[in-house]
Amino acid sequence: MAFTKIASLKQVPQGELVKVEFQGKNILLVNIKDKIHALENNCAHVGGPLDEGSLTENKIRCPWHGAEYDVTTGEATEDSNIPGLQVKKYNVKIEGDSILIDI
Asked: Collapsing DSSP states into helix, strand and coil, what is residue 11?
């Protein structure tokens, strides 16, 4: 595993959707109850920008067509209008104030 720093904890406030560009990839960082989750930022349906979506508890809804994903797994939720989809989830490690992900 090659963990790489992509942000600091200060950059990802509780309950916010933060887009980070790294090595040509758009990555979505989400802080839920002080745990950082990292997902591919593009919806698996038609590529909608998930950072522009809405977050409710641990679910993020795509702003384009309403596909809904569980932030903790990257899988489409039962409430999603497009079941069976999944966005890539990255492994996260915290070192001090640094957020590292396995790219």
From this structure: helix
**Residue 100 CB partners (closer than 8 Å, separation 6+):** 3, 4, 5, 6, 92, 93, 94
Q: Edge-to-edge strands of the sheet including 89-90?
A: 17-22, 25-32, 35-40, 89-90
Burial class (CB in 10 A: 0-12, 13-18, 19+), 96: exposed
State the 10-residue block means of pLDDT for the chain, 103 residues long.
Answer: 92 96 94 96 93 95 93 90 87 97 91
Strand partners, 22: 25
Cα distance between the two ends of the chain: 8
pLDDT given at position 1: 66
Q: Which CATH superfamily is domain 3-102 in?
A: Rieske [2Fe-2S] iron-sulphur domain (2.102.10.10)
Beta bridge partners of 31: 14, 36
Taking the C-alpha atoms of residue 53 and residue 28, their distance in angstroms, rounded to an integer, is 11
